[in-house]
Design goal:
Blueprint (H helix, E strand, L loop, with lengths): L1 E3 L2 E3 L7 H19 L3 H6 L3 H6 L5 H4 L9 H22 L1 H21 L3 H4 L17 H14 L4 E3 L6 E3 L3 H12 L6 H18 L8 H34 L4
Antiparallel strand pairs: 1-2, 1-3, 3-4
Length: 254
């Protein structure tokens, strides 16, 4: 649920055609995966070895239309999030701008999924060769990009989460998701894919220059310096409080 001023609602007021088409496309591919007994997934998932060793360069695009047939919650959660947040972005931006952003976030995340495991080998510090063959699939990178755009466009909107059942400002939605993701230790989650979708989305919005709330490197550095200053002031105040307490304890009363 989301809040806007005194208004609350569940989901978007209208579902744009582009969102309907994306959900239908993902659903059709999911059925094809199930009926093909894994044949579709074999040539469409993304893995570092398949992309950069076998030069199957279509995979950073095709992987984002696939979902795990062993867990319907994978596609249900992604499509629910796309409908909930992507619909409002498509209504606000227009369908062409939205689908361009959605595809760039998804493909960009796929490229990072295929590239990041090679970095230890490139810089000469070794690495786990098994990670080069791990397959990744799902629309999560593109969906995380949608969440980022939403949180930066309407940062002060209040979102009522289902689990845990707490309200949260939209600007804190991405940090909260990553906190829950990393703290839970859930296996089978592509952290690179999720982070990649956010990173690519941020770079795209920054370069596009049409979303005023997008933080730049300069603003992030300034906020970090302000945070450090607040921490130093808090430490000084805490030390002063302890000094006053010690002086009070040293007093002798008659």
């Amino acid at each position: 649920m989301y809040g806007r001023g005194n208004q609350t609602g569940f989901g978007p007021p209208v579902t744009p055609n582009i969102i309907k088409n994306l959900i239908i496309a993902n659903g059709v591919v999911f059925i094809a995966q199930y009926l093909s007994n894994g044949l579709v997934s074999q040539w469409a998932v993304v893995s570092p070895a398949s992309v950069w060793l076998n030069f199957e360069l279509w995979r950073p695009f095709t992987y984002m239309w696939l979902h795990s047939v062993n867990s319907p919650f994978h596609i249900l959660f992604n499509m629910f999030t796309l409908w909930m947040f992507g619909s409002q972005m498509a209504l606000h931006w227009g369908e062409q701008r939205f689908i361009r952003y959605y595809l760039i976030c998804g493909v960009g995340a796929g490229v990072l999924i295929a590239t990041v495991p090679f970095i230890p080998f490139i810089i000469g510090i070794g690495g786990d060769a098994r990670e080069l063959t791990i397959p990744t699939l799902g629309a999560s990178g593109a969906v995380m990009g949608c969440l980022l755009a939403y949180s930066l466009t309407w940062p002060n909107r209040t979102i009522q989460l289902i689990f845990p059942p707490i309200p949260i400002k939209a600007i804190w939605l991405i940090p909260f998701i990553f906190f829950m993701e990393f703290s839970s230790g859930q296996r089978g989650v592509s952290h690179v894919g999720h982070l990649g979708g956010v990173l690519v989305g941020w770079l795209y919005l920054l370069r596009e220059g049409r979303t005023p709330g997008v933080p730049t490197l300069q603003t992030l550095k300034l906020k970090w310096r302000r945070y450090q200053m607040r921490q130093k002031l808090r430490a000084v105040h805490e030390e002063e409080r302890r000094d006053r307490k010690r002086k009070d304890d040293d007093h002798t009363y008659h």
